[in-house]
Specification:
single chain; 308 residues; alpha+beta; Ribosomal Protein S5, domain 2; Alpha-Beta Plaits; 2 domains; 10 helices; binds adenosine-5'-triphosphate; ATP binding; EC 2.7.1.148; GHMP_kinase_C_dom
Length: 308
């Protein structure tokens, strides 16, 4: 009997923004304690894996020049971790199609790692449970676990402990992509410098969770907050102009996504998002804009070219 030729397995995985990001003190392992609310939005990377003679990594799409093609690529690290776990050689071709801005504070690399875990475990028919996949994800990086789950979730620890939260309604966003990137460790370093050893300020998460449960975007708009924003703006002062422009264009709130420099603008509804995006695009305050919605699901196998 002829065995079927394995076709690539393709996984689509979303970007995240942080609706709330409270950065605590530095831990003995050098990471900061975080309390965050992750929210997966409809900007996606696609990760395909297929058997190959030689381990191969291809990257396509926006910002590819900034994406490492060696063993430091997070998707490739996921492949090596899973190969080690399966006791197999990593003889696969991995193809990344980037729709998530690189070094944009939207966890694109982490998304690719989550996507690679799901794609390769499907290709190799490993039948790993969510728990096992989450354990592997946490080994790879703080945001990888959320990439698996998607939705809207509370993240604690260094972000790798993730539990879903009740979020009643679809939220409408305009995402402003910046011209350059910001290094996440450098932004945390800048925050430490700005704090100068002072105690981290209180930023309670409960009002955000209540607003999400209530489903009123205006209530949520009042409670969005990101401790890394001041540090990102200090390193990239033009962001101040971008944030102001989004609100002037009609967004009900704007914030820096994670460590930046991407900015996310919450809009009252989908029509408002289209209007804000159009106006923002003409203002020259960012490289490009995208309209997005959330929450969307985490990493999952798709048939190729399935629409979002
Ligand atoms: P973080 O997840 O650390 O907040 P980020 O979301 O700001 O980061 P990423 O797009 O994940 O940004 O990229 C951060 C850096 O990680 C890049 O500058 C790049 O050198 C490296 N990197 C490793 N693997 C990948 C990948 N698969 N895609 C994009 N960048 C990657």
């Amino acid at each position: 009997m002829l065995s079927a030729v394995p076709r690539p397995v393709t996984v689509r995985v979303p970007a995240k923004i942080n609706l709330h990001l409270a950065v605590g003190g530095v831990r003995p392992d050098g990471f900061h304690d975080l309390v965050t609310v992750f929210h997966a939005v409809s900007l996606f990377d696609e990760v395909s894996v297929e058997p190959a003679e030689e381990p191969t990594l291809d990257v396509h799409g926006d910002g590819v020049a900034e994406v490492p093609l060696d063993a430091t690529n997070l998707a490739w690290r996921a492949v090596e971790l899973l190969a080690e776990r399966a006791g197999r050689a990593p003889d696969v071709r991995v193809t990344l199609r980037k729709g998530i801005p690189v070094a944009g504070g939207m966890a694109g690399g982490s998304a690719d790692a989550a996507g690679a875990l799901v794609a390769l475990s499907a290709l190799w028919r490993m039948e790993l449970g969510r728990e096992e996949l989450s354990g592997l994800a946490a080994e790879l990086g703080s945001d990888v676990t959320f990439g698996l789950h998607g939705g809207t979730a509370l993240g604690t620890g260094r972000g790798e402990q993730v539990i879903p939260v009740l979020a009643r309604h679809r939220l409408h966003w305009v995402i402003a992509l910046a011209r350059g990137g910001l290094s996440t460790p450098a932004v945390f370093g800048e925050l430490d410098r700005l704090r100068g050893g002072a105690e981290p300020p209180e930023r309670p998460v409960e009002p955000v969770l209540e607003a999400l449960a209530g489903g009123d975007p205006r209530q949520l708009a009042l409670n969005l907050g990101n401790d890394l924003q001041a540090a990102a703006v200090s390193m990239a002062p033009d962001l101040r102009r971008t944030l102001r422009a989004g609100v002037n264009a009609g967004a009900i709130a704007g914030l820096v996504s994670g460590s930046g420099p991407t900015c996310a603008f919450l809009c009252a509804d989908s029509d408002a998002a289209v209007e804000v995006a159009t106006e923002l695009a003409g203002m020259g305050v960012c490289r490009t804009v995208r309209v997005a919605h959330g929450p969307v699901g985490g990493a999952r196998v798709i048939d190729e070219h399935e629409p979002p």
